[in-house]
């Protein structure tokens, strides 16, 4: 399966240029606004920069070539530092095809290979391809892989694996759920931060004549007026984040195939991702407060190998945004049988929670005391103290762990309750920790490290010493 | 290294208070910082090494490597040989002078280090671990 060296679609030049420009302009933009007012010459430089980037990207495109060589995929790249990268097709974990609005107008897609390489080595991305070409590559990669498997197990050739191309089960995010998911998990904090950032720059952006008027209006407005204004702004922000969440999760479809998952999502910017089931190292079930109140949960998976860090949530794959808690066992049963099973948990000892309370109690009491000492309204902060303590107490009490055959379940809570399910054969290393005081109280903390996009550690604190030892033994014996 | 930087900052502040007429209350802050720094120096140079020397041990067992370390919080780590990807030995000039070697074990999720062993012991350990890795090849994924 050889092929000649091929260029990317011509549009790749502009696509890369735009993304480079974007990453430069956004941080420097405000600086330029500030600078331009003082130095008119700077305008010239501002115009030159995109041209330089465009020329550079042209050479990059000229140099970038990909081809199939025997059972390897060969990529040549790099303008100044030349780079040849050979990837064994066998080692390509999955192929992902993505588009965004700009690409879609031209009928062009992005193709990305997942390999077992650690994340820092960089992803293998073909940034612009015709759709047919991308499908062709995808087909060729999957054909190469099955050929290899057959080659490896020739005696098993009698029963040729029937490639079943229809999904075993499809979970789609219905309209109602999409709305609920967007409503419950819109990221208002990020939005607020963005607006405050803009507001601080507003002086520079808004012309003086308008600014005088708008600001004087705010100065003269009554307190109620300002509150209404802020409330309105928050509502607007929330609506905006709702819409972005709708676009991001619209058309979410999770299909289960024989050995892999396919996740499709997005309305304007669609992405099709494929994940091998055997790459999954742990399943995380996250229940935000609001979600928990209504009996919903979100399912994540931690996979080994390279993961698109931008698109996923902290290196984990979003498996399904919103699922009823009682649907979860059947969902796991279908999606990934080896992680499924009853999710029970053992409570942690009460004295462990008391021990853990020491830190927040000391911290918040001293913090509030300082407030009361320095500020006139500080003494009212003492009212918040019991609330904080109750919050910590209950969040500590809801943690737990459980051990079932080869499955280890940790339940943690900070704000959201997170249930982590992993298996013995996915745990890379195991650590048991305790301080002198903990030993006196017969308590210990356990943490397991698994191999995700970057090593990920899950910890459960203040177990009974003998339980910790039991997990220790469980991990040691095969 | 951070220690030296700390002293530089403290010295700089003290000098500016004396010569540049900075507000005088800063002096107390500088004094507190200096005390803390001295305390840290004593702890890390005299007290902690003794304790960590006493708590540290490693053991090679049938299927895994056990490392215990820590000063206040004692931590025991188990690394099964099936998960080990490679073993490294490292020797800086100071360690070389005293015929010591550091051994580190890499898994897919991180590096675990045994900071200083006798040279011969370190090499024996490295060979032993690499032999054990060979027997059960890490499951590749």
UniProtKB/TrEMBL annotation, chain A:
<feature type="domain" description="YdbS-like PH">
    <location>
        <begin position="396"/>
        <end position="474"/>
    </location>
</feature>
<feature type="transmembrane region" description="Helical">
    <location>
        <begin position="12"/>
        <end position="36"/>
    </location>
</feature>
<keyword id="KW-0472">Membrane</keyword>
<feature type="transmembrane region" description="Helical">
    <location>
        <begin position="178"/>
        <end position="200"/>
    </location>
</feature>
<dbReference type="InterPro" id="IPR014529">
    <property type="entry name" value="UCP026631"/>
</dbReference>
<protein>
    <recommendedName>
        <fullName>YdbS-like PH domain-containing protein</fullName>
    </recommendedName>
</protein>
<dbReference type="InterPro" id="IPR005182">
    <property type="entry name" value="YdbS-like_PH"/>
</dbReference>
<feature type="transmembrane region" description="Helical">
    <location>
        <begin position="220"/>
        <end position="247"/>
    </location>
</feature>
<feature type="transmembrane region" description="Helical">
    <location>
        <begin position="42"/>
        <end position="59"/>
    </location>
</feature>
<keyword id="KW-0812">Transmembrane</keyword>
<feature type="transmembrane region" description="Helical">
    <location>
        <begin position="379"/>
        <end position="396"/>
    </location>
</feature>
<keyword id="KW-1133">Transmembrane helix</keyword>
<feature type="domain" description="YdbS-like PH">
    <location>
        <begin position="251"/>
        <end position="326"/>
    </location>
</feature>
<dbReference type="Pfam" id="PF03703">
    <property type="entry name" value="bPH_2"/>
</dbReference>
<feature type="transmembrane region" description="Helical">
    <location>
        <begin position="354"/>
        <end position="373"/>
    </location>
</feature>
<feature type="domain" description="YdbS-like PH">
    <location>
        <begin position="61"/>
        <end position="140"/>
    </location>
</feature>
